[in-house]
Design a protein that fits this description.
Order of helices and strands: EHEHEHEHEHHEHHEEHEEHEHEEEE
CATH architecture of the largest domain: 2-Layer Sandwich
Number of strands: 15
CATH class of the largest domain: Alpha Beta
Shape: elongated
CATH topology of the largest domain: Alpha-Beta Plaits
Distance between the termini: 58 Å
Helix content: 40-55%
CATH superfamily of the largest domain: Nucleotide cyclase, GGDEF domain
Number of helices: 11
Length: 341
């Protein structure tokens, strides 16, 4: 595909100037646009979004200074670079032009070579700036993919993010049943694609219920509600997300001879959250509550949601539960836990 021609808007009330500049720019491979007044230039700039504007200063009605003022006031046209073309050669005229927002100045009678050189230079500068902005946007999107939004903003603004204690959160751990033997017989590409498909849906579910995916480890998935912003419905959010996860996999497996099954464990408590690493940023959470949520998942069953007594006490009036016999939990002793009915 041929590279799109740079669009240059020429603004001049004199027909001969428009003709000469249009022919010059066309010969050099640019795409010229024309306007004979400041009012018309503003309308074209808003609609066509030219890459550069060549603007005459002395025009009847709205002059060049007023025109550039209107262009810079409008967010849609403020970033378009403007080069003044004028017979005004006094230093104060040029200073006024630059302070108005112009990036350069060409004196009349102009030389074609000078016009082309200045136009080319500022188009290259704008292209470079756009590339920088595009890369910055990509970096910011990547940052938001690996960090909670508030943490990413803090990191961008200050260059650092301090760990925080979150006293009231609910955590979800999930793990696919029989993943290890399944991974041994599935083609690697097919396995990764399927995991990516399922985790993508899980992420969408978390967004829907105001939860935050923290990380995946192999086939394990860790999410939390109540981070980085406090949420009084943290337990309700996570339980609803868990239900959607289970229902998605049940529906996904309706026409499969080997449906994917998941064990889910949920616990409520406090955690410390913060960025780990300096070269590769990872946001992680720490604390006994993380271990307890993992234990809830280990003691769950295929396609069942196992919750701790701490979470049960927060949502017991909103769902039906099946109370289990106390379970011996490694490092915890006997614990009360419940299956979501």
């Amino acid at each position: 595909m041929a590279e799109e021609k740079s669009r240059v808007l020429i603004v001049d009330d004199i027909e001969e100037n428009l003709k000469v500049l249009t022919e010059t720019l066309t010969e050099e491979g640019f795409y010229p646009l024309q306007a004979k007044s400041g009012e018309r230039a503003i309308a074209i700039a808003r609609k066509a979004q030219p890459d550069l504007i060549l603007l005459d200063i002395k025009m009847p009605g709205m002059d060049g200074y007023e025109t550039i003022g209107k262009l810079k006031e409008d967010p849609e046209t403020a970033a378009i670079p403007v080069i003044f073309i004028s017979a005004l050669n006094q230093i104060e005229d040029k200073v006024k032009g630059f302070t108005s927002g112009a990036v350069d100045y060409v004196s009349k009678p102009f030389q074609k070579e000078e016009v082309i050189a200045r136009v080319g230079t500022h188009l290259k500068l704008r292209k470079a700036l756009r590339n920088v902005e595009a890369e910055k946007e990509k970096s910011e999107k990547l940052l938001l993919n690996v960090l909670p939004s508030r943490v990413a903003e803090e990191l961008k603004e200050t260059g650092t993010s301090k760990p925080h204690l979150f006293k009231n959160v609910t955590l979800l751990f999930s793990d696919f049943v029989g993943f290890t033997p399944l991974s041994a017989i599935m083609e690697p590409e097919r396995l990764i694609n399927k995991l990516n498909e399922m985790f993508t849906v899980f992420d969408e579910i978390m967004d829907k219920h105001n939860c935050e995916r923290i990380k995946t480890i192999g086939d394990a998935y860790l999410a939390v509600s109540g981070i980085p912003d406090e949420n009084p419905d943290h337990a309700l959010n996570i339980v609803n997300a868990a239900i959607d996860m289970k229902n998605y996999l049940l529906k996904d497996g309706e026409n499969s001879s080997n449906p994917w099954q998941v064990r889910i464990g949920i616990h409520s408590g406090s955690v410390v959250g913060g960025i780990v690493g300096t070269k590769k940023y990872i946001y992680d959470i720490f604390g006994d509550s993380v271990n307890t949520a993992s234990r809830m998942e280990c003691h769950s069953e295929p396609n069942r949601i196992n919750i701790s007594e701490a979470t049960w006490s927060l949502v017991k009036d909103k769902f039906s539960f099946e109370k289990r016999d106390p379970v011996e939990v490694k490092g915890k002793g006997m614990m009360e836990m419940y299956f979501l009915a």
